[in-house]
Amino acid sequence: MTIAITGASGHLGRLVIAKLKEKVPAADVIALARTPAKAADLGVAGREADYTKPETLARALAGVETLLLVSSSEIGQRAAQHRNVIDAAKASGVKRIVYTSVLHADTSPLGLAAEHLATEADLKASGVPFTILRNGWYTENYTAAIPGALATGAFIGSAGDGKISSAARADYAEAAAVVLTGSGHEGKTYELAGDSFYTLADLAAEVSRQTGRTIPYKNLPEADYAAALLSAGLPEFVAKLLADSDIGAAKGALFDTGHQLSGLIGRPTVPLATTIAAALG
């Protein structure tokens, strides 16, 4: 079985490949990346695959049986980019596509859900067997803000008391590897999230506990939070995305109690405190 992973040089793609190498021979895994040289250290064959260049996709998917389509990071362009990959996969005879969507995409208030739903519809219409992994938030999305919070003395956000069922990125990568190498997943949609939940105030309290400092959480209006992210140097679309995601979290978009992620990987998801400790370490 030949398994290819798009976005292989990214955070998630790298982890998926590492997990796959524990399950299948490295010769059966192909890293697909816009710049293959960035994935050269992964210990598997690499091929150029640019979501915006169908000619690269046709070459990249030759002989591939199972494809992990890691969603593009280019907000506003993703549906069209993913459609290019799905079309190329169908033309190349790929036997199954596994796609990384977003938690509860069909009911989510998140602005980014619409593009994921469009891709899910394209997958269903393609005729290629598929599995949809609706990934919840990565805990690292929030622990990445720890250095800034320590520097300024507070976490900021717009999530209010919203419950967040995040998991470590490695948990989602392991789930992808299980689905890619297993059977019985065709046609299924998995809602993947952490076993436990927290609020951003809980996150701040745990960082405070581990650092011995008092780092409170300050809730801001969406526009103020986006402006703060802009002033910190984030691109405008990223600032707006993060602010929108926090508003969505306040409405329950990142909360789930189904335990499908831990069910797939056969162990509890990594606790918040552990991911915080790794970030601080």
TrEMBL record:
Gene3D superfamilies linked to this entry: NAD(P)-binding Rossmann-like Domain, UDP-galactose 4-epimerase, domain 1
InterPro entries cross-referenced by the UniProt entry: NAD(P)-bd_dom, NAD(P)-bd_dom_sf, NmrA-type_oxidoreductase
Domain NAD(P)-binding: from-to ranges: 7-177
Record-linked Pfam families: NAD_binding_10
Coiled-coil features, chain-numbered ranges: none
Name of this chain's protein: NAD(P)H dehydrogenase (Quinone)
UniProt source species: Methylovirgula ligni
